[in-house]
Design a protein that fits this description.
The chain is α/β, with parallel strands linked by helices and 415 residues long. It is built from 14 helices and 15 strands. The protein has two domains: 4-41 and 303-402, Alpha-Beta Complex (Aspartate Aminotransferase, domain 1); 68-300, Type I PLP-dependent aspartate aminotransferase-like (Major domain) (Aspartate Aminotransferase, domain 2, 3-Layer(aba) Sandwich). A hairpin with a 3-residue loop joins β14 and β15 (374-378). Bound molecules: pyridoxal-5'-phosphate and (2S)-2-amino-4-(2-aminophenyl)-4-oxobutanoic acid. Catalyzes the cleavage of L-kynurenine (L-Kyn) and L-3-hydroxykynurenine (L-3OHKyn) into anthranilic acid (AA) and 3-hydroxyanthranilic acid (3-OHAA), respectively.
Length: 415
């Protein structure tokens, strides 16, 4: 059985430990919610000051050219690309994940309808997917008004059968936001292709959390967040990946001027840009977009393999300690024990999950709560230590042993 000293010793041996110094985390906080909002890179404050004071304040309109503003979605996309197995010129950082899902789904439907099985009208996804993914698919289907519908499956085991001769698109989230279950992207993509369907992957809980190789998986389209594991900042623009092999056929209905081949030709007709630029729509929030680089540059100092090894060690330790030290309490593990099926979070149910989470937060252990009864703990190897895991479990044990939680705790808009 581990001790706190063992954890401290592991931290001393941990090659990633120094990277914690790249983040500003408040004293007395153990932050286990980087799967929802990543911590702040120290560099972000100076970068924000530079964008606001120098680039905006002094540079003014000139900064679209002189500060690289106009090219920033592409430049950041190229920096992000290696983290998900994409190539230069295949990713842009832009818009929100929801909007990028809409574009990717529209492109996938179009690609599929112009391929072999044009009569297919079903978008398959999971009922347990993050709601915005389902809502965007429902919204697009209704808007198309061509008989498209969304088919929701209830478990990962049912996906293969649901991708049948009617299925146009298989849209999945690589790591489930609630359970931390990780799909086998390569196997499901291969199955979808064998059935004649196109795939759209949401990497919100994968990018920066687990190694992803979009090309090896032969995926078709992907989107994801930068404000979670990539530490881009609250509401930071998301990303969309369109592999080179699909770019010529990639067509999406949000045909704004940033996706035009020559935006400043100011032509009255839309002509899409030839490459990944056609996934853009309109003007981006430059202050927010610029900060994404501060999160990405930390990843340049390590590898996703090193991050994954530590992530699994942290989540294994958390699961073991909770099961040993909180054994008398009604906690249920909903995250897979098998490494291959686990993302970088651990979720436990507790009948008073919301109240227990509020008590944890009050004592500086920040995780979050998702219906039904799920306490969610995100593990971010860039700034979470083994001693953090020990301390978080001790505080959880104490709260449970003392029943030091208020079952009538009032709920904020965000849980
Ligand atoms: C799987 C998944 N997709 C999308 C989103 C968010 O999309 P958006 O940034 O558009 O709110 C989240 C989290 O908010 C998510 O967990
Ligand atoms: N964007 C947010 C805004 C406010 C509160 C939470 C979020 C999240 O990102 C939630 C996250 N996607 C989740 O996995 O639950």
């Amino acid at each position: 059985m581990s001790t706190r000293q063992d954890c401290v010793a592991r931290d001393a041996r941990d090659a990633l430990a120094p990277l914690r110094g790249r983040f500003d985390l408040p004293q007395g906080v153990i932050y286990l919610d980087g799967n929802s909002l990543g911590a702040r890179p120290i560099a972000a404050l100076d970068r924000a000051r530079q964008v606001i004071a120098d680039e905006w304040g002094t540079g003014l309109i000139r900064s679209w050219n002189t500060a690289g503003w106009f090219d920033m979605p592409r430049r950041l996309g190229d920096l992000l690309a290696p983290l998900v197995g994409a190539r230069p010129g295949e990713v842009v950082v832009t818009d929100t994940t929801s909007l990028n899902l809409f574009k990717a789904l529209a492109a996938a439907v179009h690609l599929q309808a112009h391929g072999a099985g044009s009569a297919r009208r079903v978008i398959v996804t999971e009922r347990s997917n993050f709601p915005t993914d389902i809502y965007m698919a429902q919204g697009l289907s209704a808007w198309l008004d061509r008989g498209y519908s969304v088919r929701l499956v209830d478990s990962a085991d049912e996906i293969a059968a649901a991708v049948d001769a009617d299925c146009a698109v298989l849209m999945l989230t690589g790591v489930n936001y609630r359970t931390g279950y990780q799909h086998d992207m390569a196997a499901l993509t291969a199955h979808a292709h064998a059935q004649g369907a196109v795939t759209v992957w949401d990497l919100a809980h994968s990018a920066g959390a687990v190694p992803v190789d979009l090309h090896a998986a032969e995926a078709d389209f992907a989107v994801g967040c930068t404000y979670k594991y990539l530490n881009g900042g609250p509401g930071a623009p998301a990303f969309i990946w369109v592999p080179e092999r699909h770019q010529a056929a990639f067509t999406q209905p949000l045909s704004g001027w940033w996706g035009h081949a020559a935006p400043f030709a100011m032509a009255p007709d839309f002509a899409p840009c030839s490459g990944i630029g056609r996934a853009l729509c309109g003007t981006q929030p430059m202050v927010s977009l610029a900060l994404v680089e501060c999160g990405l540059e930390v990843f340049a100092e390590t590898t996703m393999e090193a991050i994954r090894a530590k992530s699994l060690a942290l989540t294994d330790l958390f699961i073991d300690l909770v099961e040993q030290r909180c054994a008398s309490h009604p906690l249920g593990l909903v995250t897979p024990r098998e490494h291959a099926s686990r993302g970088s979070q651990v979720s436990f149910t507790h009948p008073h999950g919301y109240a227990v989470m509020q008590a944890l937060i009050a004592r500086g252990v920040i995780g979050d709560y998702r219906e039904p009864a799920i306490m969610r703990f995100g593990f971010t190897p860039l700034y979470t230590s083994f001693a953090d895991v020990w301390d978080a479990v001790e505080i959880l044990r104490d709260i449970l042993d003392q029943r030091a939680y208020d079952v009538n705790a009032s709920r904020g808009a965000v849980t």
